[in-house]
């Protein structure tokens, strides 16, 4: 089991069961569906099929958010450097001559000679003139524009309100029935934004991933982290956000704050984009992924790289190799961590010392909420973590946590006894997650009261338990 998880975005060309089996076999841990591009009926059908064929794979469903997007249907158009392009806030034109935007008032806010970014900044245009509802531009950096891609305008104040759109409410309505493991909230700007999503869902079994895509999200990050279950750094839009001069430093800041809240972080956008056309990644992509791992992310995400079957599998295999290389180096560093000495922090420090001085092969955490697993995973210990819970949905969500596998066991967790702990270890032995050769570290909460966490630590040679309990 690798430490850092790989999230793969799938589309109609990569959602067939045989290909997903290959994805999983070669390193994919979590699947993502993007409602900004996928049709509603396809998303519904795909989630149902995934639940039927791959019940153990966690699913992320992204909301579209309030991003300015291209409205033309079936648009695939190549713009070369120096060529002209017209964006319009009006209606569609004959044979896609104009690029229609979903924001019907943006033409009032843009300025002549300012820049226009498309597809996360991969295409660049300059505004030459405005006429009626049309914005005339010259291409500075060319490429292919497709339906649904995002558009950003320089010097336009971020207009994200944090309000849930009618379309998002529609998606959340069917999400309540299909129950993906995570909802990705695009352009998260505040704590109240997340609370409004939670109120509509009214289901604490669906976890919330806050997507940080602009400066307002960064500024309000502590409040967002207090209630979100995880963070996704969408670097494409974030790099175009006003006053975010250095996306690399912004990424480090977000991961650092998120780790203090013990919340998993997914790093997304253009990690291996060159592999859509090439068989090998660029040196900068390798450095980029390695940097994300060393910053402390829990997962890296492939977007376009796994939407098209031409390059999907090689991108996953390459991502896994880079992650493994980065984490091996990280294990050698084995940095100590010193903070306020409350019980969970002290238990973590004890776990670090135990793993330094004993050949611990597996760490078993008995947990309901995943708190202990999130806490311990941030220390990059060498042994794999198995987070055991008696909640199927929670078990799936634990698979986002770095270096952790969520395991569901049908065991009642007791308040006045610790018998469920040894029973959990027994079941792990029976299903071959641990063997007689393992020296295990077990972390749990014993005789819990409100607020108690990680107050019990045990070390066992599994062969001794097998002999004593006659397993």
Compact overview of the structure:
This protein is α/β, with parallel strands linked by helices and 471 residues long.
Annotation field: number of helices: 16
Structural class of the secondary elements? alpha/beta
Number of strands: 21
Distance between the termini: 26 Å
Beta-strand fraction estimate: 15-25%
Binned, the helix content reads 25-40%
Name the strands of the widest sheet in spatial order. 1-2-3-12-13-14-15-16
The global form is elongated
Largest sheet: 8 strands, parallel, barrel
Low-confidence stretches: none
Instruction: Report the C-alpha radius of gyration, rounded.
Output: 24 Å
Overall pLDDT: 90
What does this structure look like?
It is a single chain. By secondary structure, the protein is of the alpha/beta class. 34% of the residues lie in helices and 22% in strands. It has 16 helices and 21 strands. The strands form 4 sheets. The chain has an 8-stranded parallel barrel with strand order 1-2-3-12-13-14-15-16, surrounded by 5 helices. The protein has a 6-stranded mixed sheet with strand order 6-5-9-8-7-11, with no helix packed on it. It is elongated. The protein starts with a strand and ends with a helix. The mean pLDDT is 90.
Provide the fold topology.
Blueprint: E1 5-9, H1 17-25, E2 30-34, H2 40-53, E3 59-62, E4 76-79, E5 84-88, E6 99-100, E7 115-118, E8 123-131, E9 134-141, E10 143-146, E11 151-153, H3 166-178, E12 182-185, H4 191-201, E13 207-212, H5 215-219, H6 221-225, E14 230-234, H7 235-238, H8 247-260, E15 265-268, H9 283-295, E16 299-302, H10 304-307, H11 312-333, H12 343-357, E17 362-366, H13 371-377, E18 384-389, H14 392-397, E19 404-408, H15 419-430, E20 439-444, E21 456-461, H16 462-469
Helix pairs in contact: 2-3, 9-11
């Amino acid at each position: 089991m690798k430490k850092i998880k790989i999230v793969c975005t799938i589309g109609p060309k990569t959602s067939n069961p045989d290909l997903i089996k290959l994805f999983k076999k070669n390193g994919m841990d979590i699947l993502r569906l993007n409602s900004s591009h996928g049709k509603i009926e396809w998303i519904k059908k795909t989630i149902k099929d995934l639940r039927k064929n791959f019940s153990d794979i966690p699913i992320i469903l992204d909301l579209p958010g309030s991003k300015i997007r291209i409205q033309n249907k079936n648009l695939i158009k190549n713009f070369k450097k120096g060529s002209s392009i017209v964006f319009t806030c009006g209606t569609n034109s004959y044979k896609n001559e104009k690029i229609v935007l979903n924001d019907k008032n943006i033409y009032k806010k843009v300025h002549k000679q300012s820049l226009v970014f498309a597809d996360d900044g991969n295409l660049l245009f300059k505004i030459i003139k405005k006429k009626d509802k049309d914005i005339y531009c010259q291409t500075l950096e060319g490429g292919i524009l497709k339906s649904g891609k995002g558009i950003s305008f320089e010097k336009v104040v971020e207009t994200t309100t944090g309000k849930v759109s009618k379309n998002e409410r529609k998606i959340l309505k069917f999400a309540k029935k299909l129950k993906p493991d995570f909802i990705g909230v695009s352009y998260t700007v505040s704590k109240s934004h997340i609370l409004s999503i939670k109120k509509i869902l009214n289901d604490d079994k669906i976890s919330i991933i806050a997507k940080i895509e602009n400066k307002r999200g960064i500024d309000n990050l502590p409040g967002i982290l207090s209630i979100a279950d995880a963070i996704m750094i969408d670097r494409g839009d974030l790099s175009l956000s006003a006053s975010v001069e250095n996306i690399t430093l912004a990424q480090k800041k977000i991961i650092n704050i998120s780790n203090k809240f013990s919340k998993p972080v997914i790093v997304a956008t253009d990690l291996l984009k060159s592999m859509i056309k090439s068989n090998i990644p660029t040196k900068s992509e390798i450095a980029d992924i390695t940097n994300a791992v060393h910053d402390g992310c829990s997962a890296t995400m492939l977007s376009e790289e796994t939407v098209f079957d031409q390059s999907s599998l090689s991108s996953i295999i390459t991502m896994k190799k880079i992650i493994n290389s980065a984490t091996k180096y990280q294990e050698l560093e084995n940095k100590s961590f010193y903070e306020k000495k409350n019980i969970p922090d002290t238990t973590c420090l004890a776990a670090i010392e135990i793993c330094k001085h004993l050949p611990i092969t597996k760490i078993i955490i008995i947990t309901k909420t995943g708190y202990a697993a999130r806490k311990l995973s941030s220390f990059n210990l060498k042994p794999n973590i198995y987070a055991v819970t008696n909640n199927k949905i929670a078990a799936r969500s634990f698979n986002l946590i770095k270096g952790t596998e969520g395991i569901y066991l049908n065991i009642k967790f007791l308040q006045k006894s610790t018998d469920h702990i040894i029973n959990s270890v027994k079941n792990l032995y029976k299903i071959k997650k641990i063997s007689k050769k393992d020296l295990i570290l077990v972390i749990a909460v014993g005789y819990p009261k409100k607020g108690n966490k990680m107050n019990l630590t045990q070390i066992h040679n599994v062969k001794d338990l097998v002999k004593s309990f006659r397993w």
